[in-house]
Every structure is written in C-alpha cells, then in structure tokens.
Specification:
Elements: E1 13-16, E2 19-23, E3 30-35, E4 40-44, H1 50-62, E5 66-71, E6 91-93, H2 95-103, H3 105-115, E7 128-129, E8 145-149, E9 156-161, E10 166-170, H4 188-205, E11 210-213, E12 219-220, H5 221-240, H6 248-253
Parallel strand pairs: 4-5, 5-6, 6-7, 10-11
Antiparallel strand pairs: 1-2, 2-3, 3-4, 8-9, 9-10, 11-12
C-alpha cells in the first residue's frame, strides 16, 4: 500500500484501545480504524473526499500500520468509498449490503461525483459479502462482532469491538442526525426500532463505553444511553403523529 505523494497524514484519535477515528468535514462523517497489536488494521467507512481518503492512507502508512481488511456498514455511497492506496483487500459487508451496492452503482456513483468528485467509482460496489451465518468480521485482528439489521438501510451493520468496549454504530445513534428511516421498507419505523433493540442488546452484552456514529461525535456510555432514548422518543413521536421537538431537527435543517 502506498499513499499519494504530497498528501498529509489525516489526524487520528484513539477513542478506545486500538480503535482510532478520523472526522470528515462533510456531514461530520466518522471513519474508524481498528488496529491490532502488530499494526494490521481494519478500516471502516473511509470517506468522504478523495483528499480525506488519501490522507487516511498516508496516516496508516506513516504509523507503520497495514490495512488487511475494510468494512462498509451499509450501501449508501458515502460508506462505500475506497482507494487503491488503502490496498486491494477484502472489503466486508453484510450480504444484503453487497447486493444493494451492486444494484445501485449508477446512482451511488452519480451522488459521489456530485458531492465528492474524483473517486474511483468502480470501487464503490466492490464489496465482499460476509459468509452466511457470520457474526464477526473474518480478519486477523481484534474480534469485531457484526450486528446486522434493517434500520437505517436494509442490511445495515453496527460493529462491536468487545476488547475495546466500543460500538461502531454506522448511520445510527448520532448526536447530530435524527433517525433517518429506510423509506423503501415495508414498516420503516418498526425496522428502525428493531435495529435499535439489536444494537442495544449487543452494547449491553459487551459493556460498551464508547460509541462512534457514522455522522456526529464520539460519545461515552452515558451519551450512548441518551442517544438510544432520544432516537426512541423521536420514533414514538412519528408513530403518535406528534410534532417532534428533537433539537437535531434544527441541525439537519441547517445543513
């Protein structure tokens, strides 16, 4: 793996043992790198701009780490980005995410080119579906558990790193975004609520103390509990037809 010349290393912050994050300017998007003791690493959702992805590759290279796998939490374009500088490695996802990404390549490519032009668009759908029945990412590093659900997107996956007590929530549990539903789901609210239940079960089982959302800020255990409550309150307002007072609505309007 080599990074482009003249590219500066992207700032990384260790938020839990062996779990490092980088924040993109676009939509406060979070990239996570899970690092083994020998420097092998798993890159989760590396977006957004070409410069950010290349600078992530530079940061990995300068730290002496080696990307051996990637993971896309779901099939929206900003979570499918990759670059050759990160290496030709398995980029895991749930089987449903891989299928959706392949089927939606033209639309995803168009969105990527509009918001973050210059990516190798053929890499968007080059995902490796997890084996049937897999409950963890198959890589030679710290155990990373996969919590699959159909909340924000069909085939969405949250990841739990038990050894670091960390939750990588994908596009859920954000402090900046309201629950964004899958409008194509038969019952979008119920699907999202069921996804929250599965994620919360995994978080409790492994005593999670750090949450990394796909968009937003890293939070501690108390903040995680607050976000579960806030998301469920927002969904309850939708079900009951109430006008929500969730402050994240104002943040979204100001995007």
């Amino acid at each position: 793996m080599t990074s482009a010349p003249g590219v500066h290393a992207r700032p990384l912050t260790e938020v839990a043992p062996g779990v490092w994050t980088a924040v993109a300017e676009t939509w406060t998007s979070q990239t996570t790198v899970v690092v083994a003791s020998d420097g092998r690493c798993l890159v989760v959702d590396p977006g957004i701009t070409v410069a950010e992805v290349e600078s992530l590759a530079r940061a990995v290279h300068e730290r002496g780490w080696r990307v051996v796998a990637g993971f896309s939490t779901h099939a929206h374009w900003d979570h499918l980005l990759w670059a050759s500088s990160l290496g030709d490695v398995p980029r895991w996802s749930t089987a449903r995410t891989a299928a959706l990404a392949a089927g939606a390549l033209p639309a995803a490519a168009a969105e990527a080119e509009t918001v973050a032009p210059g990516h190798d668009l053929m890499l968007l759908s080059r995902l490796t579906p997890l084996p049937v029945g897999a409950t963890e990412v198959p890589w030679d590093g710290p155990q990373v558990l996969v919590v699959g659900h159909d909340g924000h997107s069909r085939g969405h996956a949250a990841l739990v790193v038990p050894g670091a007590r960390a939750l990588l929530a994908g596009d859920m549990l954000s402090d900046l975004e309201i629950p964004l539903l899958d409008v194509d789901a038969a019952d979008a609210i119920a699907s999202y609520d069921a996804g929250l239940d599965l994620i919360e079960e995994g978080a409790h089982l492994h005593d999670v103390t750090v949450v990394v959302p796909g968009h937003g800020h890293v939070g501690d255990a108390a903040e995680l509990a607050r976000r579960f409550a806030a998301d469920r309150a927002y969904l309850a307002d939708l079900v009951d037809g109430r006008r929500s007072t969730d402050p994240r609505l104002e943040l979204r309007a100001g995007r």
